[in-house]
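Illustration 12: DNA-binding response regulator.
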Amino acid sequence: MKLLLIEDDTNLAKVITSGLEENGYVVNWESDGKLGAEMALAYTFDVIILDIMLPEINGFSVCKKIRTEGNQTPVIMLTARYQEDDRVRGLDCGADDYLVKPFSFPELLARLRALLRRANNQHSPSIKLRKLTLNTVDRRVFYDDKEIEFTAKEYGILEYLVLNKNCIITKNMIEEHIWESESDIFSNVIEVLISRIRKKLDNNNKNSLIKTVKGLGYIIEDK
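Figure caption equivalent — predicted structure in token form:
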């Protein structure tokens, strides 16, 4: 899924971004509060990782601003501050979780997965839909009890469709969630990736798990 990292420490931001990308996330990084708030309101993200001590405007103000604008994207505050009143203030501004630096990267990943499950009303790291099972911790996919290997982009698309089962997902929605903001992709790349996913799951037969809704997009139905 796609994350927004708002962090002014360049070295730390590079380490976090690299680690998240290695775990299959798409990451957009902004280094000051003003640009971070603008990015959060201009594009769709699944989770925002937000530092408190930022140039321009601080993390508390960023969180309050996007919540005032109606943005309900889950926010995890990442900061060196450890006082209880800062944690309380962050949560009262609308943050969903709070992680104090220095932190372990596995804990950050676990908290991100928990926020994503909560946002999608998932209580288990394993998502089951008909013959399909996705393990969101290690990104393994099983179909009809057989494990199938997917590329990062293929898995991202499949997970996004499953999390939004019974809803029509347009190509623009897939592009917004699976690629970095403002990135240009070839016009047919999503069609190619959908075709590859279908072939791996059920060899593109007429009863394919992923249905095309002509002129609109794609859907996976829970039936």
